[in-house]
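tool=predict chain=A
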Amino acid sequence: MTNKTNTIIIGILVFIALDLFIWRGILSIVPDHVAHDYFLDVGQGDSELVIFPGGTKVMTDAGPDDTVLASLARALPSGDDYIDLAIISHPQLDHFNGYNFILDHYRVGAFIYNGRDDDPGVAAWPALKAKIAAKHIPFITLGGGDKILIGAGGSAGASSTRNEVDFLSPNLAFDQSAELNDTGFVELIKTPGLRTLLTADIGFNVEDWLVAQNKIGATDLHADVLKIPHHGSKYSSGDAFLRAVSPRVAVIEVGAKNKYGHPGSSTLERLASDTNAIVARTDKNGTVEVYRDGSGKLRVSKEK
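tool=predict ok
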C-alpha cells in the first residue's frame, strides 16, 4: 500500500472517529464561541489542552506521571470526564506517560501518534498501547501534511473560519530519524481569532526546515501563541524561527529546578530580542490559560 493511500485512509478514519465522538463532547459541556488554550502544569513535561469553540476537547501530551490529573481537573468543568481526541507528540515518557493515568479516570474518543515507539526498555509505552487497545479506542497514525477538521465549522467555508489541527511536521525524513525529538508533531491549531503553534521537543534542525517551508509559502508559521520547543532548551527556539512565528504569547512548559537547566538563558535572551511576546512558565506560573475575551483582546490567565 502506498504512502498516499495510507494518508487517504487515515484521513477517512480520523473523520469517522471525530464524527462519532465530537458531538458527544460538544453536548457534554456548556458551548463557548472562543477557543481556550491550557498549558497544564505537569512538572518537567508537556501537556496542552485546547477546548475549541463549541466544546470539542483536543489534548496533546500528558506529562510524565499522574500530576496531570489535578491540572486537568481544574481546567475542565466539574464532572466532565471526556476528551474527544488525545494526541501523543512523540513517544517519550515526559510526553505520554500521564495518559496511563488519565485512562483510569477519563474516557477518550481517539488517540493520534506518529507511528514510532519508545526505547524497548521503557515499560510505560507498551503499557499505554495495551491500555488503549483494551478500551477499544482508535489509535491512528498521522504525520506532516495531515489535517483534522473540528466540528461543523471545519467542513465548509473559508479557512479563516475553520477549527482545525494542521500537522506541519514530521516530514518523512524526520519521521524516520533515530532522534525521537525530530519525530515530534508540530501542530498549528487554528480557530477563528486564535492561532496556536505546539512544537513538542523539536530542535534547530526541524525549526530551520519549518522556516524554509514558511519562506516558500508552503506553510504559514505565524501564531498568536507559541509553545516553546523542548522546555526552553538552548538547542531550540532559534532566531529565525521565533521571528517567523512572531508570537504574542510564549509558554514554556518546564519543571522547577529541573536537572537539564531548562529553560536555557540563551533561549530566554532570544525570546526577548526576537519577539515582543508575553512569556509564561509553568514552573513559575502553574497552568497557563490563553484566550480572547469578548472584545477580541488576547488574555493570559496564570494559576499563580
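The CA atoms of residues 249 and 278 lie 5 Å apart. Confidence is low (pLDDT under 50) at residues 1-31.
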